[in-house]
Amino acid sequence: MEIKFLVQGLIVGFVASIPLGPVGVLCIQRTINKGRISGLFSGMGAATVDSFFALVAALGLTFIINFIEDQQFYFQLFGGGILIFLGTRIFNTNPVQQIRRHRKKKNKLVEDFFSVLFLTLSNPLAIFLFVAAFAGIGLVTSNDSFIKSSLIIAGVFLGALLWWALLTFFVDLFRKKFRLKQLWWINKIAGILIIVFGAAAMLSVFFLNQ
After folding, report:
1. Domain spans in the chain, listed from the N-terminal domain onward
2. For the whole prediction, is pTM greater than 0.85?
3. What is the DSSP secondary structure assignment for residue 34, as one 8-state letter?
4. What distances in angstroms separate CA 67 from CA 62, 64, 122, 201, one per listed residue?
5. DSSP string covering 125-177, please?
6. How far apart are CA 31 and CA 29, in angstroms?
7. Contact yes or no for 156/12 (Cβ under 8 A)
8. High-pLDDT (> 70) share of the chain, %
């Protein structure tokens, strides 16, 4: 049954999304400060890019993979810069203003979606994660049909989205227990963590290329 390819893709997408890197920290911070929908839209941006990366891996687009390898220095530098920018914004965010904006329904979900989408796009090395995953379980071969490949990619998207939905759901369960002082500290800690991720990404570029 071809539905098994959807399920296998779902498992790959779910597992690939679990490591809580900067995107995970960002989604948690937004869920706590702005609500579950904001966190979910942020996660949806990551899931969309993961599906694209999985598509590249499944189709074996060698010229794209070679381009990413050749331009790895600039991708990591750009991605690190985005992380430092986002981390600084979060660090300086006033939780009171975010709560007021959320209550007035001025939460910009499109901005939440695209900010994480571009952040995830700035780390195209994730393509190799899907290449390794597909090769490891023999999920993609050169003789695959269009339907099989489509089901795998759809599964990756659904699996990634499932992870972000579960994460934001459980974070949202405890959201109302946080007080303003705690929200202030969460913003500071999340901002610092994301800045550290960004700085580490930028520094690793120079150390790895020595």
Report:
1. 3-208
2. no
3. H
4. 8, 5, 14, 19
5. THHHHHHHHHHHHT---TT--HHHHHHHHHHHHHHHHHHHHHHHHHHHHTGGG
6. 6
7. yes
8. 83
